[in-house]
Amino acid sequence: xxxxxxxxEAIPFARTGGLGDVCGSLPNTVSALGHxxxxxxxxxxxxxxxxxxxxxxxxxxxxxxxxxxxxxxxLLKSHLPGSGVTIWFIDQPKYFDRDQLxxxxxxxxxxxxxxxxxxCRAILKAIQRLQLQPDIIHCNDWQTGLxxxxxxxDPDLRNDYENTATVMxxxxxxxxxxxxSRNFEYTGIGWEHFSPDAFEFFGSLNFLKxxxxxxxxxxxxxxxxxxxxxxxxxxxxxxxxxQGSTDRMRGIINGIDELIWNxxxxxxxxxxxDHSNWRLGKTQNKGFxxxxxxxxxxxxxxxxxxxxxxxxxxxxxLILPVIRWHLNEGRPTQWIVLGSGDPALEKxxxxxxxxxxxxxxxxxxxxxxxAHLIExxxxxxxxxSHYEPCGLNQLYSLRYGTVPIVNPTGGLADTVTDTTExxxxxxxxxxxxxxxxxxxxxxxxxxxxxxLRYHYPEAWSNIVVRGMNQDWTWRxxxxxxxxxxxxxxxxxxxxxxxx
Length: 499
Fold this sequence. Notes:
Blueprint: E1 2-6, H1 18-32, E2 36-42, E3 55-66, E4 69-79, E5 86-91, H2 93-96, E6 103-104, E7 107-108, H3 112-130, E8 136-140, H4 146-153, H5 155-158, E9 165-170, E10 178-180, E11 200-201, E12 204-206, H6 207-214, E13 217-220, H7 223-228, H8 239-243, E14 249-251, H9 278-293, E15 303-307, H10 316-328, E16 334-339, H11 343-355, E17 360-364, H12 368-377, E18 380-383, H13 393-399, E19 403-406, H14 410-415, H15 421-426, E20 432-433, H16 439-455, H17 457-469, H18 474-488
Parallel strand pairs: 1-2, 1-8, 2-5, 8-9, 9-13, 13-14, 15-16, 15-18, 16-17, 18-19, 19-20
Antiparallel strand pairs: 3-4, 4-5, 6-7, 10-12, 11-12
Helix pairs in contact: 1-18, 3-4, 4-6, 9-12, 10-16, 16-17
Protein backbone atom coordinates (compact mmCIF):
# COMPACT_ATOMS: atom_id res chain seq x y z
CA UNK A 1 0.00 0.00 0.00
CA UNK A 2 0.98 3.61 -0.45
CA UNK A 3 0.31 5.49 2.79
CA UNK A 4 0.60 9.20 3.53
CA UNK A 5 0.74 10.42 7.12
CA UNK A 6 -0.50 13.96 7.81
CA UNK A 7 0.71 15.34 11.12
CA UNK A 8 2.04 18.46 12.82
CA GLU A 9 4.58 16.56 14.93
CA ALA A 10 7.12 13.81 14.37
CA ILE A 11 10.24 13.13 16.39
CA PRO A 12 12.96 14.24 16.03
CA PHE A 13 11.75 17.23 14.00
CA ALA A 14 8.99 18.68 16.19
CA ARG A 15 7.23 17.40 19.30
CA THR A 16 5.03 18.64 22.13
CA GLY A 17 3.66 15.26 23.28
CA GLY A 18 2.66 11.74 22.33
CA LEU A 19 1.59 12.73 18.81
CA GLY A 20 5.24 13.37 17.94
CA ASP A 21 6.26 9.97 19.30
CA VAL A 22 3.59 8.17 17.26
CA CYS A 23 4.27 9.93 13.97
CA GLY A 24 8.02 9.62 14.35
CA SER A 25 7.85 5.87 14.99
CA LEU A 26 4.78 4.30 13.36
CA PRO A 27 5.64 5.34 9.76
CA ASN A 28 9.14 3.86 10.12
CA THR A 29 7.76 0.53 11.26
CA VAL A 30 5.06 0.40 8.58
CA SER A 31 7.69 1.19 5.96
CA ALA A 32 9.94 -1.59 7.26
CA LEU A 33 7.04 -4.00 6.71
CA GLY A 34 7.14 -3.28 3.00
CA HIS A 35 4.78 -0.36 2.42
CA UNK A 36 5.41 2.91 0.56
CA UNK A 37 5.25 5.59 3.24
CA UNK A 38 5.63 9.36 3.30
CA UNK A 39 4.83 12.10 5.81
CA UNK A 40 3.63 15.68 5.49
CA UNK A 41 4.05 18.23 8.24
CA UNK A 42 4.51 22.03 8.55
CA UNK A 43 7.98 23.52 8.21
CA UNK A 44 7.99 24.77 11.77
CA UNK A 45 11.06 26.65 12.97
CA UNK A 46 11.92 23.66 15.17
CA UNK A 47 12.59 21.34 12.21
CA UNK A 48 15.74 23.28 11.40
CA UNK A 49 17.00 22.75 14.95
CA UNK A 50 16.81 18.94 14.82
CA UNK A 51 20.29 18.55 13.34
CA UNK A 52 19.04 16.59 10.33
CA UNK A 53 19.65 17.61 6.74
CA UNK A 54 16.65 19.28 5.07
CA UNK A 55 16.69 19.81 1.31
CA UNK A 56 15.08 22.55 -0.72
CA UNK A 57 13.01 21.51 -3.72
CA UNK A 58 11.79 23.32 -6.81
CA UNK A 59 8.16 22.44 -6.01
CA UNK A 60 5.99 25.41 -5.10
CA UNK A 61 2.36 26.44 -5.49
CA UNK A 62 -0.28 28.81 -4.16
CA UNK A 63 -3.54 28.31 -2.29
CA UNK A 64 -6.37 30.84 -2.60
CA UNK A 65 -7.36 31.46 1.00
CA UNK A 66 -9.89 34.22 0.43
CA UNK A 67 -11.30 35.97 -2.59
CA UNK A 68 -8.41 37.76 -4.23
CA UNK A 69 -5.86 36.59 -1.64
CA UNK A 70 -3.53 33.68 -2.37
CA UNK A 71 -0.77 32.32 -0.18
CA UNK A 72 2.21 30.51 -1.65
CA UNK A 73 4.44 27.79 -0.26
CA UNK A 74 7.27 25.50 -1.26
CA LEU A 75 8.11 21.95 -0.31
CA LEU A 76 11.15 20.99 1.71
CA LYS A 77 12.30 17.39 1.99
CA SER A 78 14.04 15.14 4.46
CA HIS A 79 13.90 11.57 5.81
CA LEU A 80 13.06 10.05 9.15
CA PRO A 81 16.31 8.85 10.71
CA GLY A 82 17.01 5.19 10.27
CA SER A 83 14.62 4.66 7.38
CA GLY A 84 13.79 5.59 3.83
CA VAL A 85 10.57 7.37 4.85
CA THR A 86 10.38 10.69 3.03
CA ILE A 87 9.06 13.60 5.02
CA TRP A 88 7.73 16.61 3.13
CA PHE A 89 7.52 19.96 4.88
CA ILE A 90 5.00 22.64 3.86
CA ASP A 91 7.15 25.76 4.02
CA GLN A 92 5.22 28.98 4.54
CA PRO A 93 7.07 31.27 7.00
CA LYS A 94 4.05 33.50 7.59
CA TYR A 95 2.24 30.57 9.19
CA PHE A 96 4.94 28.27 10.52
CA ASP A 97 8.16 30.17 11.26
CA ARG A 98 7.30 30.86 14.90
CA ASP A 99 8.80 30.14 18.31
CA GLN A 100 6.16 27.55 19.20
CA LEU A 101 3.92 25.20 17.25
CA UNK A 102 0.44 26.20 18.37
CA UNK A 103 0.67 29.22 20.66
CA UNK A 104 2.72 31.28 23.07
CA UNK A 105 2.44 32.37 26.69
CA UNK A 106 -0.63 34.43 25.80
CA UNK A 107 -2.47 31.35 24.52
CA UNK A 108 -3.22 29.74 21.17
CA UNK A 109 -2.21 31.70 18.08
CA UNK A 110 -5.31 33.64 16.96
CA UNK A 111 -4.84 32.57 13.32
CA UNK A 112 -4.63 28.81 13.99
CA UNK A 113 -7.75 28.15 11.93
CA UNK A 114 -6.17 29.88 8.94
CA UNK A 115 -2.77 28.23 9.53
CA UNK A 116 -4.03 24.67 9.64
CA UNK A 117 -6.67 25.07 6.94
CA UNK A 118 -3.80 26.17 4.72
CA UNK A 119 -1.77 23.17 5.89
CA CYS A 120 -4.53 20.70 5.00
CA ARG A 121 -5.16 22.21 1.61
CA ALA A 122 -1.43 22.41 0.87
CA ILE A 123 -1.01 18.70 1.66
CA LEU A 124 -3.68 17.79 -0.87
CA LYS A 125 -2.17 20.06 -3.51
CA ALA A 126 1.32 18.66 -2.83
CA ILE A 127 0.11 15.07 -3.15
CA GLN A 128 -1.33 15.98 -6.55
CA ARG A 129 1.88 17.72 -7.67
CA LEU A 130 4.00 14.76 -6.52
CA GLN A 131 1.56 12.30 -8.15
CA LEU A 132 1.64 10.10 -5.07
CA GLN A 133 -1.83 8.58 -5.53
CA PRO A 134 -2.01 7.21 -1.98
CA ASP A 135 -4.25 4.34 -0.98
CA ILE A 136 -4.53 5.79 2.54
CA ILE A 137 -4.14 9.25 4.03
CA HIS A 138 -3.73 8.86 7.79
CA CYS A 139 -4.73 12.10 9.54
CA ASN A 140 -3.67 12.81 13.11
CA ASP A 141 -5.52 15.07 15.55
CA TRP A 142 -7.54 18.19 14.88
CA GLN A 143 -4.86 20.04 12.89
CA THR A 144 -5.40 17.61 10.00
CA GLY A 145 -9.11 17.04 10.61
CA LEU A 146 -10.23 19.05 7.58
CA UNK A 147 -8.50 16.67 5.15
CA UNK A 148 -11.20 13.96 5.03
CA UNK A 149 -13.91 16.62 4.72
CA UNK A 150 -12.15 18.42 1.89
CA UNK A 151 -11.64 15.16 -0.02
CA UNK A 152 -15.30 14.29 0.42
CA UNK A 153 -16.88 17.66 -0.29
CA ASP A 154 -14.56 19.66 -2.55
CA PRO A 155 -15.64 18.92 -6.15
CA ASP A 156 -12.18 19.92 -7.43
CA LEU A 157 -10.59 17.17 -5.32
CA ARG A 158 -13.14 14.39 -5.43
CA ASN A 159 -12.02 12.84 -8.72
CA ASP A 160 -8.30 12.95 -7.92
CA TYR A 161 -8.88 11.22 -4.58
CA GLU A 162 -11.66 8.81 -5.53
CA ASN A 163 -9.38 5.84 -4.81
CA THR A 164 -7.91 7.27 -1.60
CA ALA A 165 -9.37 6.33 1.77
CA THR A 166 -8.86 8.34 4.94
CA VAL A 167 -8.09 7.32 8.51
CA MET A 168 -8.63 9.87 11.29
CA UNK A 169 -6.80 9.23 14.58
CA UNK A 170 -7.96 10.95 17.76
CA UNK A 171 -4.96 11.22 20.06
CA UNK A 172 -6.73 13.45 22.59
CA UNK A 173 -10.36 14.43 22.17
CA UNK A 174 -9.99 17.40 24.51
CA UNK A 175 -8.35 19.32 21.64
CA UNK A 176 -10.74 19.72 18.71
CA UNK A 177 -9.82 22.87 16.78
CA UNK A 178 -13.08 24.76 17.20
CA UNK A 179 -13.23 28.24 15.69
CA UNK A 180 -15.75 30.94 14.72
CA SER A 181 -17.70 30.14 11.57
CA ARG A 182 -16.11 32.97 9.58
CA ASN A 183 -12.97 30.83 9.27
CA PHE A 184 -14.80 28.41 6.99
CA GLU A 185 -14.08 30.70 4.05
CA TYR A 186 -10.44 29.54 4.15
CA THR A 187 -11.49 26.05 3.03
CA GLY A 188 -12.29 27.33 -0.46
CA ILE A 189 -15.51 25.31 -0.74
CA GLY A 190 -19.12 26.43 -0.78
CA TRP A 191 -20.98 27.45 2.35
CA GLU A 192 -23.59 24.79 1.62
CA HIS A 193 -21.08 22.36 3.15
CA PHE A 194 -21.00 24.29 6.42
CA SER A 195 -23.63 21.99 7.85
CA PRO A 196 -24.06 19.51 10.72
CA ASP A 197 -23.24 16.57 8.46
CA ALA A 198 -19.85 18.05 7.58
CA PHE A 199 -17.89 20.96 9.07
CA GLU A 200 -20.38 22.82 11.31
CA PHE A 201 -20.71 22.12 15.02
CA PHE A 202 -23.20 24.26 16.97
CA GLY A 203 -22.48 27.25 14.76
CA SER A 204 -18.70 26.87 14.82
CA LEU A 205 -16.10 25.31 12.54
CA ASN A 206 -14.81 22.17 14.26
CA PHE A 207 -11.78 20.57 12.59
CA LEU A 208 -11.88 17.29 14.50
CA LYS A 209 -15.62 16.84 14.08
CA UNK A 210 -15.19 17.30 10.31
CA UNK A 211 -12.59 14.53 10.33
CA UNK A 212 -14.75 12.20 12.40
CA UNK A 213 -17.80 12.71 10.20
CA UNK A 214 -15.92 12.38 6.91
CA UNK A 215 -13.18 9.79 7.45
CA UNK A 216 -13.59 6.24 6.22
CA UNK A 217 -12.15 4.90 9.49
CA UNK A 218 -11.65 6.51 12.90
CA UNK A 219 -9.03 5.28 15.32
CA UNK A 220 -8.14 6.20 18.87
CA UNK A 221 -5.03 5.28 20.81
CA UNK A 222 -6.59 2.55 22.94
CA UNK A 223 -9.69 0.32 22.81
CA UNK A 224 -10.93 1.56 26.18
CA UNK A 225 -10.61 5.21 25.11
CA UNK A 226 -12.64 4.40 21.99
CA UNK A 227 -15.46 3.33 24.30
CA UNK A 228 -15.02 6.17 26.79
CA UNK A 229 -15.26 9.00 24.28
CA UNK A 230 -18.80 7.99 23.34
CA UNK A 231 -19.90 8.89 26.90
CA UNK A 232 -20.82 12.32 28.22
CA UNK A 233 -18.04 12.06 30.82
CA UNK A 234 -15.22 11.73 28.28
CA UNK A 235 -16.86 12.84 25.02
CA UNK A 236 -15.90 16.53 25.36
CA UNK A 237 -19.16 17.51 23.65
CA UNK A 238 -18.62 15.24 20.62
CA UNK A 239 -20.11 12.11 22.21
CA UNK A 240 -23.26 12.17 20.08
CA UNK A 241 -21.19 12.43 16.89
CA UNK A 242 -18.95 9.58 18.04
CA GLN A 243 -21.91 7.43 19.10
CA GLY A 244 -23.05 7.55 15.49
CA SER A 245 -19.59 6.51 14.27
CA THR A 246 -18.83 3.42 16.36
CA ASP A 247 -19.09 1.11 13.35
CA ARG A 248 -16.10 2.95 11.84
CA MET A 249 -14.06 3.28 15.03
CA ARG A 250 -11.38 1.11 16.59
CA GLY A 251 -8.75 1.57 19.29
CA ILE A 252 -5.09 0.71 18.74
CA ILE A 253 -2.55 1.05 21.54
CA ASN A 254 0.56 3.09 20.79
CA GLY A 255 3.92 1.36 20.90
CA ILE A 256 7.31 2.08 22.40
CA ASP A 257 10.62 2.31 20.59
CA GLU A 258 12.81 -0.50 21.93
CA LEU A 259 15.92 1.11 20.50
CA ILE A 260 15.31 3.88 23.05
CA TRP A 261 13.36 2.17 25.85
CA ASN A 262 15.14 -1.08 26.66
CA UNK A 263 16.84 -1.57 30.04
CA UNK A 264 19.25 -4.09 28.51
CA UNK A 265 20.74 -1.54 26.10
CA UNK A 266 19.73 1.89 27.52
CA UNK A 267 22.80 4.15 27.42
CA UNK A 268 21.18 6.66 29.80
CA UNK A 269 21.20 4.36 32.83
CA UNK A 270 24.33 3.29 34.73
CA UNK A 271 23.40 -0.39 35.08
CA UNK A 272 21.80 -2.35 32.25
CA UNK A 273 19.65 -5.38 33.03
CA ASP A 274 16.96 -7.69 31.67
CA HIS A 275 14.33 -10.02 33.11
CA SER A 276 17.00 -12.45 34.33
CA ASN A 277 18.91 -10.00 36.56
CA TRP A 278 16.40 -7.24 37.18
CA ARG A 279 16.88 -7.18 40.96
CA LEU A 280 20.59 -6.43 40.69
CA GLY A 281 20.11 -3.88 37.92
CA LYS A 282 17.36 -1.98 39.69
CA THR A 283 19.29 -2.01 42.98
CA GLN A 284 22.35 -0.48 41.29
CA ASN A 285 20.30 2.15 39.47
CA LYS A 286 18.43 3.01 42.67
CA GLY A 287 21.70 3.53 44.51
CA PHE A 288 22.94 5.82 41.76
CA UNK A 289 19.72 7.88 41.84
CA UNK A 290 19.70 8.05 45.65
CA UNK A 291 23.25 9.35 45.58
CA UNK A 292 22.54 11.93 42.89
CA UNK A 293 19.51 13.35 44.70
CA UNK A 294 20.90 12.81 48.22
CA UNK A 295 18.12 10.45 49.29
CA UNK A 296 18.68 7.90 52.04
CA UNK A 297 20.98 5.25 50.49
CA UNK A 298 18.86 2.28 51.56
CA UNK A 299 18.34 -0.24 48.77
CA UNK A 300 15.40 -1.98 50.44
CA UNK A 301 13.35 1.22 50.70
CA UNK A 302 10.64 1.05 48.04
CA UNK A 303 11.07 3.93 45.59
CA UNK A 304 7.94 5.42 43.99
CA UNK A 305 8.47 7.30 40.72
CA UNK A 306 6.39 9.88 38.86
CA UNK A 307 7.21 11.44 35.49
CA UNK A 308 4.95 13.81 33.54
CA UNK A 309 2.90 16.97 33.62
CA UNK A 310 1.99 18.42 36.99
CA UNK A 311 -1.73 18.82 36.32
CA UNK A 312 -5.00 17.64 37.80
CA UNK A 313 -5.68 15.54 34.69
CA UNK A 314 -2.69 13.40 35.68
CA UNK A 315 -4.22 12.77 39.11
CA UNK A 316 -2.17 15.18 41.18
CA UNK A 317 -5.22 16.00 43.28
CA LEU A 318 -4.92 12.34 44.37
CA ILE A 319 -1.14 12.07 44.50
CA LEU A 320 -0.26 15.09 46.62
CA PRO A 321 -2.33 14.10 49.69
CA VAL A 322 -0.80 10.61 49.58
CA ILE A 323 2.75 11.99 49.39
CA ARG A 324 1.99 14.21 52.41
CA TRP A 325 0.66 11.23 54.39
CA HIS A 326 3.75 9.16 53.68
CA LEU A 327 6.20 11.96 54.49
CA ASN A 328 4.45 13.35 57.56
CA GLU A 329 3.93 9.88 59.03
CA GLY A 330 7.49 8.77 58.27
CA ARG A 331 6.40 5.76 56.25
CA PRO A 332 9.25 3.69 54.77
CA THR A 333 8.98 4.92 51.17
CA GLN A 334 11.03 7.22 48.92
CA TRP A 335 9.60 9.46 46.21
CA ILE A 336 11.13 10.82 43.03
CA VAL A 337 9.20 13.33 40.88
CA LEU A 338 10.12 14.68 37.43
CA GLY A 339 7.82 17.14 35.70
CA SER A 340 6.49 20.66 35.38
CA GLY A 341 3.14 22.38 35.01
CA ASP A 342 0.85 23.92 37.60
CA PRO A 343 2.92 26.56 39.46
CA ALA A 344 1.10 25.81 42.73
CA LEU A 345 2.00 22.11 42.45
CA GLU A 346 5.60 22.97 41.58
CA LYS A 347 5.82 25.21 44.67
CA UNK A 348 4.29 22.58 46.97
CA UNK A 349 6.63 19.85 45.72
CA UNK A 350 9.68 22.06 46.15
CA UNK A 351 8.61 22.78 49.74
CA UNK A 352 8.17 19.07 50.48
CA UNK A 353 11.61 18.28 49.01
CA UNK A 354 13.14 20.97 51.21
CA UNK A 355 11.31 19.73 54.30
CA UNK A 356 12.00 16.00 53.69
CA UNK A 357 15.23 15.95 51.65
CA UNK A 358 16.09 12.33 52.40
CA UNK A 359 12.63 11.00 51.46
CA UNK A 360 11.57 12.92 48.36
CA UNK A 361 13.48 14.33 45.39
CA UNK A 362 11.91 16.73 42.90
CA UNK A 363 13.21 17.85 39.51
CA UNK A 364 11.03 20.61 38.05
CA UNK A 365 11.33 20.57 34.27
CA UNK A 366 12.20 17.70 31.96
CA UNK A 367 15.33 15.60 31.64
CA UNK A 368 15.42 12.64 29.29
CA UNK A 369 18.25 11.12 31.32
CA UNK A 370 16.31 11.37 34.57
CA ALA A 371 13.15 9.99 32.92
CA HIS A 372 15.08 6.86 31.96
CA LEU A 373 16.86 6.64 35.31
CA ILE A 374 13.60 6.88 37.28
CA GLU A 375 12.09 4.05 35.26
CA UNK A 376 15.21 1.95 35.87
CA UNK A 377 15.50 2.72 39.60
CA UNK A 378 11.94 2.90 40.95
CA UNK A 379 9.99 -0.05 42.30
CA UNK A 380 6.56 1.50 41.65
CA UNK A 381 5.33 4.05 39.13
CA UNK A 382 2.17 6.09 39.77
CA UNK A 383 -0.24 7.08 36.95
CA UNK A 384 -3.65 7.75 38.57
CA SER A 385 -4.80 9.89 35.61
CA HIS A 386 -8.44 10.96 35.51
CA TYR A 387 -8.32 10.26 31.78
CA GLU A 388 -5.49 8.93 29.64
CA PRO A 389 -6.15 8.22 25.94
CA CYS A 390 -3.18 5.85 25.77
CA GLY A 391 -0.28 6.71 28.03
CA LEU A 392 3.33 5.73 27.41
CA ASN A 393 4.96 5.88 30.82
CA GLN A 394 3.10 2.81 32.03
CA LEU A 395 4.52 0.95 29.00
CA TYR A 396 8.04 2.17 29.78
CA SER A 397 7.48 1.08 33.40
CA LEU A 398 6.38 -2.41 32.41
CA ARG A 399 9.42 -2.74 30.18
CA TYR A 400 11.76 -1.61 32.99
CA GLY A 401 10.24 -3.82 35.69
CA THR A 402 8.73 -0.87 37.52
CA VAL A 403 5.28 -1.99 38.59
CA PRO A 404 2.63 0.58 37.57
CA ILE A 405 -0.24 1.74 39.78
CA VAL A 406 -2.95 3.27 37.59
CA ASN A 407 -6.47 4.57 37.49
CA PRO A 408 -8.10 2.11 35.05
CA THR A 409 -9.08 4.57 32.33
CA GLY A 410 -8.25 4.65 28.61
CA GLY A 411 -4.97 3.00 27.68
CA LEU A 412 -4.09 2.45 31.33
CA ALA A 413 -6.97 -0.02 31.64
CA ASP A 414 -5.94 -1.77 28.42
CA THR A 415 -2.27 -2.22 29.27
CA VAL A 416 -2.10 -2.85 33.04
CA THR A 417 -3.81 -5.91 34.54
CA ASP A 418 -4.82 -5.48 38.18
CA THR A 419 -3.21 -7.77 40.71
CA THR A 420 -5.85 -9.88 42.43
CA GLU A 421 -5.90 -13.42 43.78
CA UNK A 422 -7.39 -14.53 40.46
CA UNK A 423 -4.84 -12.76 38.23
CA UNK A 424 -1.95 -13.95 40.39
CA UNK A 425 -3.18 -17.53 40.01
CA UNK A 426 -3.81 -17.32 36.26
CA UNK A 427 -0.52 -15.49 35.61
CA UNK A 428 -1.87 -12.27 34.09
CA UNK A 429 -1.21 -9.64 36.81
CA UNK A 430 1.13 -6.79 35.81
CA UNK A 431 0.21 -3.88 38.10
CA UNK A 432 -2.39 -2.38 40.41
CA UNK A 433 -5.66 -0.52 39.76
CA UNK A 434 -7.29 2.11 41.92
CA UNK A 435 -10.74 0.98 42.98
CA UNK A 436 -11.95 4.61 43.03
CA UNK A 437 -10.35 7.83 41.76
CA UNK A 438 -9.58 9.28 45.19
CA UNK A 439 -6.52 9.61 47.47
CA UNK A 440 -7.57 6.84 49.86
CA UNK A 441 -7.89 4.37 47.00
CA UNK A 442 -4.48 5.38 45.65
CA UNK A 443 -2.91 4.87 49.07
CA UNK A 444 -4.65 1.51 49.39
CA UNK A 445 -3.25 0.42 45.99
CA UNK A 446 0.25 1.40 47.09
CA UNK A 447 -0.31 -0.60 50.28
CA UNK A 448 -1.38 -3.68 48.31
CA UNK A 449 1.71 -3.42 46.15
CA UNK A 450 4.10 -3.03 49.04
CA UNK A 451 2.52 -5.91 50.94
CA LEU A 452 3.12 -8.19 47.96
CA ARG A 453 6.68 -6.90 47.50
CA TYR A 454 7.62 -7.49 51.14
CA HIS A 455 5.68 -10.63 52.02
CA TYR A 456 5.29 -12.51 48.71
CA PRO A 457 8.56 -11.95 46.84
CA GLU A 458 7.99 -14.79 44.38
CA ALA A 459 4.61 -13.39 43.30
CA TRP A 460 6.18 -9.93 43.07
CA SER A 461 8.98 -11.25 40.88
CA ASN A 462 6.44 -12.93 38.59
CA ILE A 463 4.59 -9.64 38.14
CA VAL A 464 7.81 -7.76 37.36
CA VAL A 465 9.10 -10.33 34.86
CA ARG A 466 5.72 -10.70 33.16
CA GLY A 467 5.57 -6.95 32.52
CA MET A 468 9.13 -6.88 31.21
CA ASN A 469 8.42 -9.68 28.75
CA GLN A 470 5.24 -8.23 27.24
CA ASP A 471 5.38 -6.93 23.69
CA TRP A 472 4.39 -3.26 23.51
CA THR A 473 6.66 -2.46 20.56
CA TRP A 474 5.69 -0.48 17.50
CA ARG A 475 5.78 -3.70 15.45
CA UNK A 476 2.72 -4.90 17.37
CA UNK A 477 0.92 -1.60 16.81
CA UNK A 478 1.97 -1.38 13.16
CA UNK A 479 0.51 -4.80 12.40
CA UNK A 480 -2.85 -3.61 13.74
CA UNK A 481 -2.67 -0.36 11.76
CA UNK A 482 -1.85 -2.24 8.56
CA UNK A 483 -4.85 -4.47 9.16
CA UNK A 484 -6.91 -1.29 9.63
CA UNK A 485 -5.56 0.22 6.39
CA UNK A 486 -6.32 -2.95 4.45
CA UNK A 487 -9.90 -2.95 5.69
CA UNK A 488 -10.24 0.79 4.93
CA UNK A 489 -8.91 0.74 1.36
CA UNK A 490 -11.35 1.80 -1.32
CA UNK A 491 -12.56 -1.30 -3.16
CA UNK A 492 -14.61 -1.44 -6.35
CA UNK A 493 -17.55 -2.88 -4.42
CA UNK A 494 -17.07 -0.79 -1.29
CA UNK A 495 -18.94 2.52 -1.41
CA UNK A 496 -17.77 5.52 0.58
CA UNK A 497 -19.88 6.93 3.38
CA UNK A 498 -22.71 8.79 1.72
CA UNK A 499 -21.74 12.38 0.91
